[in-house]
Amino acid sequence: MANVLLKVSGLEVAYGGINAVKGVDFEVREGELVSLIGSNGAGKTTTMKAITGLLPIKAGDISFLGKSIKGRGAWDMVKEGLVMIPEGRGIFTRMTIVENLQMGAFIRDDKAGIAQDIERMFALFPRLKERRAQLAGTMSGGEQQMLAMARGLMAQPKLLLLDEPSMGLSPIMVDKIFEVVEEVYKQGVTMMLVEQNASRALSIADRGYVMESGILTMSGEAQQMLNDPRVRAAYLGE
Ligand code: ATP
């Protein structure tokens, strides 16, 4: 079985006195695409932020490549190969597309490799190539999401955490984003995908987890979960 890249054990995260994540255990193995689904406010984003060092953890542990990363900052985590593409994307709106991609590679100093990877991103996202000199803030929501993904990939992540990439996009853009997620996965990037679009997220994943009110209530093979009457009733509108 493939190496465990990320292991989360007994994770608790609180905002002030209120626990948002209440003891969560899961793992992601090398080469996997794992989807974390659940309704609004379940604690998915909070979990991702704790993993990437953006929020302190109250209890439990997180290890990446077998080492505890508890208490390490977000910058450090990117250097280790753990990259998050946040909900709302967080692109640099006053920079061009190319400048955003260069920023994504801030931890690298291999100029030729960076230039090559920018071309690779343009092959993966032709729309970004057409608009390479455009200011990122003037692009559509879907284009900005593509840029956010491409920028994340520029850091050569070992694990990419994608927080709700389909949020707020038109159906055509949602299709495009899922196509690209699948393509990136096929190219060998390990991913954890946080989504409210449960059916799409499970249909491309190896495994899935369901989060409700700060705890994981279900886990399993993604295909099996898609057919599970409880998942279908709660998340697939049946
Ligand atoms: P969504 O899909 O709506 O983003 P989520 O599953 O990602 O949902 P979180 O954003 O992790 O959920 O929120 C979990 C809980 O923590 C919610 O009750 C939310 O109101 C609360 N919360 C999130 N951010 C903060 C904050 N900065 N301060 C206080 N409470 C917060």
Oligomerization state: single chain
Q: Give the strand content.
A: 25-35%
Q: What class, by secondary structure content? A: alpha/beta
C-alpha termini separation: 35 Å
Major β-sheet profile: 6 strands, mixed
| Total helical elements | 10
State mean pLDDT (0 to 100 scale): 92
Helix content: 25-40%
What's the SSE pattern? EEEHEEHEHHHHEHEHEEHH
Which spans of ≥5 residues are poorly predicted at pLDDT below 50? none
State the shape: globular
> Count the strands?
10
Question: TL;DR?
Answer:
The protein has 238 residues and is of the alpha/beta class. 38% of the residues lie in helices and 27% in strands.
List the helices and strands and how they pair.
Blueprint: E1 4-15, E2 18-29, E3 33-37, H1 44-51, E4 59-64, E5 67-68, H2 74-80, E6 82-85, H3 97-104, H4 111-124, H5 126-130, H6 141-153, E7 159-163, H7 171-186, E8 190-195, H8 198-203, E9 207-212, E10 215-221, H9 222-227, H10 229-235
Helix pairs in contact: 3-6
The structure holds adenosine-5'-triphosphate.
The site of adenosine-5'-triphosphate has 12 residues, from α1.
Explain what the structure shows:
With 238 residues, this protein is of the alpha/beta class. The chain has a domain of 75 residues. The protein is 38% helix and 27% strand. The chain has a 6-stranded mixed β-sheet with strand order 6-7-8-3-9-10, with helices on both faces. A hairpin with a 2-residue loop joins strand 9 and strand 10. Helix 3 runs parallel beside helix 6. The protein is globular. The termini are far apart. 40% of the residues are buried. The mean pLDDT is 92. Adenosine-5'-triphosphate binds next to helix 1.
